[in-house]
């Protein structure tokens, strides 16, 4: 009986050991298997956006197997804004307008455009005409492709390179020379003699003689001859004025009596 139990125990241990080895082998294979492509996060694959970047025109391929290549793409750009505005630079001219994009369809309506005469060989008008003929758009990798109406051809754009920030040179601190204090001898103050104050004599006051009061003549014989009544008629210089009768009475006591009457 003990021998049978020992045999079962040995078999059980061997079975557990084989099971552990199998589990380890299976787990190693599971870790070594690569993830399928379908399990990749689609958000990790970045696609260009129509709105935001500055798109430079590089070439146009027409349906008649002809091509138009731009020598300097930096002179021909288009930028779409979130508010539906579109800004165009066409060589020496600029234009603004609006656009509408739904799924892959694209419509561009340009408004005010400058009419500067560019240099010979400029593609300013061709670029504006092609944008106004847009029908739809797709992305070919990082390139924007605008399809023109009536399958006239495709306009190819590439994003303008981002401006590389230039690092400003670090300022090297310059050591300022230490100020050496040079003792300067202050000049000795020379006392100046103050001039003696000379007393100026005050001018003698000259007495101003007070005028003697002149005697007031009393009415007498000289005044008696003027005593009486005096009358005068005052006529105005202009028509319509009042005619006045002035009466002056000089009394013997020297008093005066003045009367004025309106004669109409």
Question: Tags for this entry?
Answer:
264 residues, alpha+beta, three-stranded antiparallel beta sheet, 17% helix, elongated, disordered N terminus
Structural description of this entry:
This protein has helices at 2-32, 124-132, 221-224, and strands spanning 54-62, 67-69, 76-80, 85-90, 93-102, 105-113, 134-140, 143-148, 153-159, 228-234, 244-250, 256-262. It has 264 residues and is α+β, with helices and mostly antiparallel strands. The strands form 2 sheets. Strands 1, 2, 3, 4, 5, 6, 7, 8 and 9 form a 9-stranded antiparallel β-sheet that branches. Strands 10-11-12 form a 3-stranded antiparallel β-sheet, with no helix packed on it. The longest helix has 31 residues, at 2-32. Residues 1-5 and 28-44 have low confidence and may be disordered.
Summarize the structure.
17% of the residues lie in helices and 31% in strands.
| Strand residue percentage | 25-35%
According to DSSP, the number of beta strands is 12
Q: Structural class of the helices, strands and pairings?
A: alpha+beta
Estimated helix fraction: 10-25%
Mean pLDDT: 77
Number of helices: 3
- Tell me the radius of gyration: 61 Å
SSE string, helix = H, strand = E? HEEEEEEHEEEHEEE
Low-confidence stretches: 1-5, 28-44
Identify the overall geometry. elongated
Distance between the termini: 177 Å
How is the topology of this model organized?
Layout: H1 2-32, E1 54-62, E2 67-69, E3 76-80, E4 85-90, E5 93-102, E6 105-113, H2 124-132, E7 134-140, E8 143-148, E9 153-159, H3 221-224, E10 228-234, E11 244-250, E12 256-262
Antiparallel strand pairs: 1-2, 1-3, 1-9, 3-4, 4-5, 5-6, 7-8, 8-9, 10-11, 11-12
